[in-house]
Amino acid sequence: MSAARWVEPVDVHAVAGTAEALFRTTFGGDADGVWAAPGRVNLIGEHVDYAGGLVLPFALPYVTVVAVRVRDDGILHAVSTHTGESWQGALADVAPGHPSGWSAYVAGVVWALRRSGHLTAKTGFDVAVHSTVPVGSGLSSSAALECAFALAVADLTGLPTDESGRRPLIDASIFAENEIAGASTGGMDQAVAMLARPGHALLLDCRDGATRHVPLDFGAASTRLVVIDTNAPHRLVDGQYGNRRATIEKACADLGVATLRDVADADAAVAALSSSAAQRARHVLGEIGRVYEVADLLDRGRIADIGDALNRSHASLRDDYEVSSVELDSAVDAAREAGAWGARMTGGGFGGSAIALVPTDRVDAVAENVTRRADTASLPVPQFLHAEPSGSAHRL
After folding, report:
1. Which of 49, 189, 229, 320 is catalytic?
2. Model confidence, pTM
3. DSSP 18-73
């Protein structure tokens, strides 16, 4: 069996240097600036953002960096170290499904800002991208890219970038993902990438956009939150995520409510729905309750006590929402077996990552057991990331 594989955070200035080098090689000369935005992990509150629920994510010390220069011809030219591929085209031609792949997240941001009147038709950009957020891990590499670039565009074109000024940038990044890339996600990822604060989780009310920073200091509680990237590809555009969202929207229509947050009697609502819709609604309503529970425990400094809620969240996602996978279940079970207080899948599911709340002295044992279980079952070799609550998108 191979040893547990840890992915260490890379100093953001080293990441920036790689993006700048790619920029000079591709475009010649220097960029106008360099910006970074973080990946994220959601502590709890899964598949409730599009149901008007509450979520509790925090930013990770893994970032996407963009080196950007303004053009005056309405052209976007973007290149990434991840694929080695570039995309160049007229921003006037950007539309749902075009371009495809990673460049949709970049082009979509400009498309959204142009549509809302924030950019002129002649404004274009050269962009070089480098990232340490594992792609396909469910840690929101797409939102990190969108938000790093959106902040760059704002800085370079004179748009406000204080907290209130970031709200339109969050909206533009969401539109890019939903409309151009075709991923039917909610707004949690973009909000935390733009608003996160070191040492805190972000309690986000997805019904009205209200936020509150909740203290989150794992070290003070002699705990660690370990991210387990199962290396099972995480894909949100294959229809499964959209199907879940459509089921919740229909359940709301059948119940006569705008969102499931408006349900007064959860048990009665679940009983009134068809079996499949009832399962999905039961998860959403229960998960919203678990977010309140975890936020309250964190406010009281009881980090070690949130493990039970994490366990219940995974069971609900696995059984009622049916978005887990054999790789995620293996990681969660193995982490608990080795001493984790709680563990669950995180992100959209269907692959991606899990998290485990672990006593500091059991971190290595958990990583080793998760790796051993994957090897025994002939699953992809997982890798492990450090989950230290970090800051939001910024200019370097």
Report:
1. 189
2. 0.92
3. HHHHHHHHHHSS--SEEEEEEEEEESS-TT-GGGT-EE-EEEEEEEEEEEEEEESS
